Automatic annotation (TrEMBL):
<dbReference type="GO" id="GO:0016413">
    <property type="term" value="F:O-acetyltransferase activity"/>
</dbReference>
<keyword id="KW-1003">Cell membrane</keyword>
<protein>
    <submittedName>
        <fullName>Acyltransferase</fullName>
    </submittedName>
</protein>
<feature type="transmembrane region" description="Helical">
    <location>
        <begin position="130"/>
        <end position="147"/>
    </location>
</feature>
<comment type="similarity">
    <text>Belongs to the acyltransferase 3 family.</text>
</comment>
<keyword id="KW-0012">Acyltransferase</keyword>
<dbReference type="GO" id="GO:0009246">
    <property type="term" value="P:enterobacterial common antigen biosynthetic process"/>
</dbReference>
<feature type="transmembrane region" description="Helical">
    <location>
        <begin position="282"/>
        <end position="302"/>
    </location>
</feature>
<dbReference type="InterPro" id="IPR002656">
    <property type="entry name" value="Acyl_transf_3_dom"/>
</dbReference>
<feature type="transmembrane region" description="Helical">
    <location>
        <begin position="322"/>
        <end position="345"/>
    </location>
</feature>
<keyword id="KW-1133">Transmembrane helix</keyword>
<feature type="transmembrane region" description="Helical">
    <location>
        <begin position="50"/>
        <end position="67"/>
    </location>
</feature>
<feature type="transmembrane region" description="Helical">
    <location>
        <begin position="188"/>
        <end position="208"/>
    </location>
</feature>
<keyword id="KW-0808">Transferase</keyword>
<dbReference type="GO" id="GO:0005886">
    <property type="term" value="C:plasma membrane"/>
</dbReference>
<feature type="transmembrane region" description="Helical">
    <location>
        <begin position="88"/>
        <end position="110"/>
    </location>
</feature>
<keyword id="KW-0812">Transmembrane</keyword>
């Protein structure tokens, strides 16, 4: 397809761009940072929270890139879906089953609920399609994988139509916002632009790299404007959640995170060959396992804080120093506590660990 976007510099079908592996590592750390925020709107700096929330979009952007770069040219729908079921959906089911057992024990023995009360609580959780809160992502991404023939067709469309569909889906997302319960259908509409942007970056990588400087400047401006508008003009804390077809204004998080995808990609490119790059690559390799298992560490923290409250009447103070200290502690605990759990499971289960945690 002759155009100023002509594909440039891509050779092997399965060629993996190192900076995108790093970006996947950064994306999972970004998600863990967002899940480490404590005292939301009660001591934690709102501007920083608005920057740290919503890292999932970067994860989706990376998935879109690899769909085009790795799977597209030899795409076979059945084998593609079988692998995604084995590596994503089956671990989701296994971990969800374990989580149900642990949660039932929490309701019964920590919170003192009766069996009937515990079952009602668990049923209300299950109605949303997941057990552990971050796992709302799995039904959504499986739905995205199911629509891969549509994404393949998107790749083969003329550039003008591709850009039109990206623009249209972005307008829908910015007003639709994320679902109140993070349901898969609304999440599909919201995050599809990130996936399409990843596809386009892979497809027209040469153009993106040749125009890197003005694009990065534009992205930096968009991030700053979106942060300012969300924090100081319309004051909204964190992600936007909304009922379907209900107008609640512009989702500034969406605009910010679309721009951050390219900024973090440049950071990933800068990381190549730098100290810590190998460790980031390791985190990228286990990113799905980190995503699957870190909610268990969140449960440990929540139960520990409840114990401190009930036994010692101690609560984390609602001020900025304590909130920032908790951010650092929770981030390190969630990240490296989960890494330790992953390595233990890998040693115990060997190759069968893929069925449990996706790695």
């Amino acid at each position: 397809m002759p155009s100023i976007f002509a594909l440039h510099g891509v050779t092997a079908v399965n060629h993996r761009i190192l900076e995108f592996d790093y970006l996947r590592g950064i994306a999972i750390l970004y998600i863990l940072l967002g899940h480490s925020i404590y005292n939301s709107n009660e001591g934690f700096p709102v501007l920083l929270e608005n920057l740290l929330r919503g890292g999932t979009g970067v994860f989706v952007f990376v998935s879109g890139f690899f769909f085009h770069r790795v799977f597209y040219r030899q795409f076979e729908y059945r084998s593609f879906m079988v692998k995604k079921i084995q590596n994503v959906f089956v671990p989701f089911l296994v971990i969800s089953a374990v989580a149900i057992v642990l949660q039932m024990n929490e309701w019964l023995f920590i919170h003192g609920n009766t069996w009937d009360e515990a079952l009602v609580i668990e049923w209300k959780i299950l109605r949303d399609g997941y057990v552990l809160f971050p796992h709302w992502y799995i039904p959504f991404i499986m739905l995205t994988f199911l629509l891969s023939p549509w994404h393949k067709a998107y790749i083969e469309k003329p550039l003008a139509l591709q850009l039109g569909l990206l623009a249209l889906s972005s307008v829908v997302a910015v007003f639709l916002q994320r679902g109140a319960d993070n349901g898969p259908i609304q999440s599909l509409f919201y995050f599809t632009p990130f996936y399409l942007l990843g596809i386009l970056y892979s497809q027209y990588q040469g153009w993106f790299e040749r125009n890197k400087k003005p694009l990065l400047m534009l992205c930096a401006v968009l991030v700053l404007v979106a942060l300012y508008m969300q924090t100081y003009v319309f004051f909204h804390v964190g992600n936007y959640h909304n009922a379907p077809l209900r107008f609640r204004g512009v989702d500034w998080q969406f605009i910010q995170k679309m721009a951050i995808c390219l900024l973090l990609l440049e950071l990933s490119r800068w990381m190549v060959g730098k100290p810590g790059a190998d460790h980031l690559h390791f985190l990228a390799r286990i990113s799905f396992a980190l995503f699957f298992l870190h909610p268990f560490l969140t449960m440990v923290v929540a139960d520990g804080l409840l114990f401190l409250h009930n036994v010692y009447a101690f609560d984390i103070p609602h001020n900025t120093p304590w909130s920032m200290g908790m951010l650092v502690f929770l981030f390190l605990f969630l990240t490296y506590g989960t890494v330790g759990l992953i390595l233990l499971l890998k040693r115990w289960l060997g190759n069968n660990s893929r069925w449990v945690m996706g790695w």
